[in-house]
Design goal:
The protein is an alpha/beta fold. 37% of the residues lie in helices and 17% in strands. α1 packs across α11.
């Protein structure tokens, strides 16, 4: 194995549901893979949508992130290849929904994912994207404790910025208690429609309040992007020429440019 830079661990989080976390995990991962990076997606959502969206059927998920966190199973035994070159996944099932209850008495509960990712397998990946559930629960906190940074998908709708305050507070608390190096990777505007005045106002407010944290790339509302998960494919495979595919390619290139990572 050639020498690699340290894996970049990014938690994709927002406690609000339906903002594009899983869509971003799947398609940013696929776009980074197309750019020649080796990417692992870790599905931490009990709904398992990232696993389904990358073509992993339920009967293929013999071992999952539940086994990784609760049973202490090695990461190497859980990771599965996807149909996309350079892209792997640690899948999830509904078993993960009981994690908060099962872990509440574990004194090490917020460090379980960090400890599980202390694996020689991590040297195989350039990026690790953690798809968090739509809540600030123990699974999301585990992702933040393990991560280098948090990427926040922000839906272009009314009250979008209000929901960020609790997320930012959680990030601050994780910094103070468990992961002082945690930073905000950036904010990505999702479901964006240039024709909609509200979308433009949300973007203006976001850039005014968050400045350069807001990525230049905006993920549009796109029918093909919405259809792709039902075919168990990233948009880059389902429709490589769609606006959604172009946007995620642009997002991957912008992220790489921020990190100045050569291929």
């Amino acid at each position: 194995m050639p020498d690699r830079q340290k894996s970049r661990l990014i938690a994709i989080a927002n406690q609000k549901g339906g903002v594009g976390k899983t869509t971003t995990a799947i398609n940013l991962g696929a776009a980074l893979a197309v750019e020649g990076r080796r990417v692992l997606v870790i599905d931490l959502d009990p709904q398992g949508n990232a696993s389904t969206g990358l073509g992993i059927e339920p009967d293929q998920r013999n071992f999952t992130t539940y086994d990784l966190l609760i049973e202490g199973m090695p990461l190497r035994e859980i990771v599965l290849p996807t149909a996309s070159d350079n892209l792997w996944i640690a899948p999830a099932t509904t078993d993960l929904s009981s994690a908060d209850v099962e872990l509440v008495s574990n004194e090490n509960r917020v460090f379980l994912l960090k400890d599980a990712l202390n694996s020689d397998l991590m040297a195989d990946f350039d990026f690790v994207l953690m798809d968090c559930p739509p809540s600030l629960n123990l699974l999301t906190v585990n992702a933040m404790v393990a991560a280098d940074a948090v990427l926040v998908p922000l839906q272009s709708e009314f009250f979008a910025l209000e929901g960020l305050s609790q997320l930012m507070l959680t990030i601050r608390e994780v910094r103070q208690s468990a992961n002082p190096g945690l930073r905000i990777e950036g904010v990505v505007l999702t479901m964006y429609d240039m024709r909609n005045n509200l979308c433009r106002q949300v973007e203006e407010d976001a850039r005014e309040n968050l400045g350069p944290l807001v990525y230049n790339t905006r993920i549009p509302r796109n029918v093909r992007l919405s259809e792709a998960p039902s075919y168990a494919m990233p948009i880059l495979q389902y429709d490589p020429t769609s606006k959604g595919s172009e946007a995620y390619r642009d997002l991957a290139q912008e992220l790489l440019a921020r990190h100045m990572q050569p291929a």
